Every structure is written in structure tokens, then in C-alpha cells.
Amino acid sequence: MMNRLNQSEVYEYWTRQAREHGRSPSASWSDHRVIEMEISEIAKYLTDGDKVLDVGCANGYSSLRFACVRRVQLRGLDYVPEMIEQARAQLAAMQDRLVGSVEFDVGDITQLKERLNSYDKVIVVRVLINLGTWERQLLGLRECIRVLKPGGLLLLSEATLQGWRRLNALRKEWGMEDIPMPLFNQYIDEEKVIAAVGSEATLLEISNFASTYYVGTRVLKPLLAQATHAPVSVADPGAEWNRWFSQLPPAGDYGTQKLFVFRKP
Ligand SMILES: C[S@@+](CC[C@H](N)C(=O)[O-])C[C@H]1O[C@@H](n2cnc3c(N)ncnc32)[C@H](O)[C@@H]1O
Fold it and tell me: Which residues line ligand 1 (CB under 6 A)?
């Protein structure tokens, strides 16, 4: 088994992503379709007037989209200064399209400088998976709950071990190898998260918003490519196949990426 990256290597990885991809959503992930699905899913929980913290916002691509559709007061934080520079540049370029207000700053999810009980919604999208260990993931989760107002929502969209294993089990039935976990990630154990957070916040919903998309692009697409000897790029955002599957309603629990909604009592 290959070694996972250590925390300074993960930091270097995200710094390179910021430099290489600038303001593109690719700075966060090559699968733009899942990013779009995530934005729509999370936006459903945002209300005009909300004070929102978006932790690990990368170059602010999604944060700014939220402020285009909701009159929120959003603060985006990322621990990579180059990501925040890109986010601020994009904020300046998009100012006239925003209905809400946005600011960006450097900040670390494991030691937030924000005050206790200060946000209506805290958004965490694909951030805990970068923290290396369960102890640090739990620290990050607790920080996010700490800064939520009582009654506030934690909107947590992360890759889970359970979803990843189920997708790989489906692939295995068709003779395909496991999709490896990227070396800079440690997917969250959703059972551990639910059990640990349970004492501090109530789980309202788990949305498997990308389950159908994962089956279409990570199982059916490579199988068809194999059968037709076509080249395959499973995450290709320009592919019609990906567009179609991203428009289908979610079914089952085969998405590595899931949204967990917790309410602070
Ligand atoms: C996959 S991107 C997330 C992108 C963004 N949330 C979105 O919705 O597209 C992960 C981001 O988490 C940031 N990150 C990783 N560890 C962090 C930490 N300890 N504190 C704050 N940000 C962190 C990385 O710099 C990177 O920009």
C-alpha cells in the first residue's frame, strides 16, 4: 500500500492547485459536474439573511455562486493564501452579479478564529478529507459546530469510506479494480462522524445527491468504453454522458461524495 501524504505535502498540493488552476473550479476538483450538483444541493439549505461561514473555500468558486442566488452574508476561509488571493480577485470580478455579500480570509479549520455561536450555516465541502487523521477531522468538525449559532446548520459534503467501498463493490461485480483513494485524502468514516457529532448536533439528513452520477460515470462509462475500445475520462465535465447523468435523480448509496446536514441544538 502506498503512503498517504503528510500534512505539509497536502498543503503543498493545494498551493500547487491554486497556482496551476487560478480561478477555475479545477483548483478544487476536476469533476465540475459534482461541484455543480453540490452547489445546488447546499443552496437549498441557505436562506436570505443567513450569516454563512464556508470553511476550506479554495478559490471561492462555490462560495461566490451561493452569493449569486441567496442574499447571504458569507465569509470564506482557506488555509492556502494563494487560494484566498484567487478568491478575492474573482470576488472583485463578480461583484455586480452578487445578491449577497462575500469576504475571504486565510483560516484553518482546526483552529478557527471565529467566535462561539456566530453563524447560521457553516459549509464544509471536501475539507475534512485533507486533514490526515480522525483526530484532526474531529477537531475540525468540533470547531465548525462551536462557531454555529444554536439552531444553526452544518452542511458537510465529504467523500466517505462507506460510499467509496459500495461503489467499488459495484465495480467489482463487473471485474473492475477499486478506484484508489487519492494519496492526499483520508475519506471520512461516516459512522464515526455521526456517532461523534451526535452529542453536539442532530443529524437531520444524509443526501446521496451524486449516487446515480457515480454509477453512470464510474461504473457504466468505463464498462462501455471497455466494450467499444473508446478512451475514457470518468470525470470529463465536457462529456455529454456526464452531463446526462448529472441531471438524473439520485438513487441508491453509491456516491463517494455525500452531504450530511446537522443542526446544533
Ligand atoms: C477540495 S477543496 C474544497 C473546495 C471548496 N470547498 C468547494 O466547495 O469547491 C479543499 C480545500 O480545503 C483547503 N484546506 C485543506 N486543509 C485545510 C485546513 N486545515 N483549513 C482550511 N482549509 C483547508 C485546501 O486548501 C483546499 O482549498
Answer: 14, 28-29, 35, 56-58, 61-62, 78-80, 83, 108-110, 125-127, 130
